[in-house]
Structure formats: C-alpha cells, structure tokens
Design goal:
84% helix
Length: 487
Amino acid sequence: MKKKSLGVNAFLNGLRSVLNLFFPLITFPYVSRVLSVPGIGIYNFSNTYISYFILIAGLGIATYAVREGAKYRENKDKINDFVSQIFSLNMIATVIAYLLLFASLIIFKNLRNYISCILIFSLQILFTTLGTEWIYTIYEDYTYITIRSIVFKMISIVLLFLLVRRPEDYLIYAAITVFSAVGSNLLNFIHARNFVHIKLTTKTNWKYHLKPILIIFASAIAVTIYVSSDTTILGLLKNDYAVGIYSTSVKIYQIAQGLLSALLTVTIPRLAFLWGRRHISEYNQVLSKVIDSLGILVLPAAVGLIMLSREIILIIASEKYLPSVNSLRIISWAIIFSIFSWIFSDCVLIPAKRENFVLRNTVITAIENIILNFILIPFLSYDGTSLSTVIAEFTVMIMNGYSCRDIIKPVIFKKDTLKNLLDSIIGCVGIVVICLLCDIGFKSLWLKTIFSVVLSVIMYGAILILLENKNAYSMLDRAKMILKSKL
C-alpha cells in the first residue's frame, strides 16, 4: 500500500475535526439565543446520557481494530476476515447497548422528562457502528469522510436556521445534531467496500479478540466517566441551568482540544504499523515529530483561550452565558494535560500492547474525578466541575507517562524537546502581553478579539524564530514550499 503523507492526513483530519466542531461553533451562538438555558441543559444531559450507550456499542473496538488491522492491511484475505469479525462483534455490542438503554428508560422514572430527546440521540448508536470509520483510519484515508462531512454539515446548518425558531425547538436541534454527526454513516459503510469486503459472520474468533477489546473498553468507560461524570453529577446536584452554563465552557474547550488532537489521530495507525513491524527507529522518529509539533502548539492554545475567555463566550454564546467565563479559564489548562495524556496512551501504550496500564490509570483517575466532583460541585458549582477535570487530566497524564517511560525516554528527554518547552513558555509571555494591550486599546469586542488572535500568532511565531526554534523553522519552510507550489 502506498504510504500516505502524515502532513496531508493531518490536514484532512484537521479539516474534518474543524467541520465537526464548526457545526456547534456556528450554530451554538444562534441556538443559545433561541433556546432557553434549561432547554440547552436538557439537550446536553440527553446527549451525555446517550454517550454511555454509544460507548457500550463501541466496546473499545475502534481502537483495537486500528492497532491490529494496521498489521493486516497489506494482506487482502487477512484484512477481509479481520474486518468481518470485528464488525460482527460491534453489531452484537450495539444490540446489547439498545437493550440496556430501553431498560434504563423503563426503570428510571426521573428520565421521563428527557425521554424524547434521549430517543432522538439514540440513533447515533446504530449509525456510529455502521460508519466503520476505523476502516478509514486503518488505511489512513481521510479524503472521502472529509468531503462527506462538508456536505452534511452544510445541509445541517441550513436545516437548523430553517427549523429551530422557538425556545421549545431543542428536540429539532437534537435531530439535526444527529443528522450532522452520523447521517452519512450508511454511505460510509457502502464506500468502505472499496477497501474491504464486510460481512456478518458467526466465526468471530472472539476468544482471541475479546480480552484486549474488553481491556480497552474498560479504559474507555473510565475515560468517559471522568469526562462525562462532570455534567451528570452537576445535573444531579444542581440544575439544568448549571449544566447549560458549564456545557458552554466545555463546548469551547472541546473545540480547541479537537483541533490539536487531529495530528494525533492520523499518526496512530502509522505508529501501530511501525511498532507491530518492530521498526523502532522509524517509530521513534514519528513519535518525536508528534511530540515536538504539539509541544509548540498546545501551550499557546491554552494561554490564548484563557486570555480571551470572556470575548469568546460573548461571541459564541451571549451575555447570559458570562458566568461560564471562569469555568472556561479553569478548564483550558486541561487541554495541555489531555493532549499529552493521549499521546502516551494511544500513540505509545496501546500500540505497545500495554492497554492494561491504560485501564489501571484511567480507573484510578475516574474514581478520583467522581470524588472531586462530589466535593467541589456543592461549593463551586460549574467552576468545581472544571477544576476536577483539570486535576483528573493532570493525574492521568503523569500516570500514562510513567507507564511508558522506557519507550518515551529516548524521545522526550532530549535537549531539543526541553528547548521547545522553554521556547513555548517564553512565546506565551508575548501572547499575554499582546492580549493585555489589545484589551486596553480596543473597545470593540470583535476588533479586540481579531487583533488579539492575529498579533498573538505573529508575536509567538516571531519569538520562536528569534530563539532559533527548529520546529518553527520547519513549519516556516513547509509553508514557503506550499506557497511556491501554488504560485
């Protein structure tokens, strides 16, 4: 199979991530003004609730499939057999997820206010399974799903502005969100036949697949608990208003996190392939490139988000969501920890078949996060949920890093890596100065935000170049090459 450019894949997956996040970024300012805060709370609670059942249906299969399938992708017979087995296991898990969902709706009477919204979101369970996006990840092919995302996001935005007009239209908003997220997954399933032949089979070889899948699944449950328990516990201890306020800061945080993680997603199959073939030297080179590239992007992203939290809330939501400013400032720090935690888990531990360490670390972190939520929410409300997330992300980053210390030591403890960190910190001082000056110099919200962002990027880049940062020079050379090729 022809090796695809990580740069092109990162761009395509980044574009897809932007589109996936662009939908709420464009729609949320409109929706937050049309719908009531409690309506937004019901929408977010239902979405969070369904995420648990999507997790059950997923069963950790996507992560496992990418790791194992990357080794078979050059053998047509083996990959066809492997994909059919994995898809069949995925469908069994999907049926179980629906049975558990319907049982919970019957048993828990306090869910009846949310039942309509939950049922709409439940369509995601089936269509996520049919989407088989892990096949595209195995083959490092992001072109089709990126084009598909553009089309369906555009249709969804048009539908939103046409159909969501009143405070009680949050159910319509939920349906449009589902259509935007998974509406085209049936097309994904059909198009995947260009790579492999998928069929349901009773010969799933479950004894071989089940143990690593369940370990990864258990890790995914723990991750979901410490990511989603904030919203769930906040809804239980406080009210829909608090959930609506907190959800605003989380949505913005997830946008920034999603953009930065695009590079990680496209490197996972390459790293799994290299580790599986024992190409350690090349594996270290790719991992080093990922760590260095994200090292100079993550810190300024977090600092910029902290400095412009108020302006971003006003632009994306409105004045009635201003209480979420402090929550956003707190949770922005979690971006740094979550990205590096993800590098250690998905790019190192899982390809190295150390998923048992990922499970242990995430279970400990999930327990820690639940305890912190019950301690902090009664006193700090939605600010407490943000703080618990930051502490949890920091904890799991340290634990994951320690668990793969023997692998990352020759990659991360280098003079260049440490210099990158110092350069980034100095560059962030420039970002803080620029944002403070723009806050003093501009009265207009839009002018202040635009000039803060543009001048911060220029200042940060200039500082890195003055400090002779190799990654900055590399990115600059790449940009010049792209520019020359277009002229």
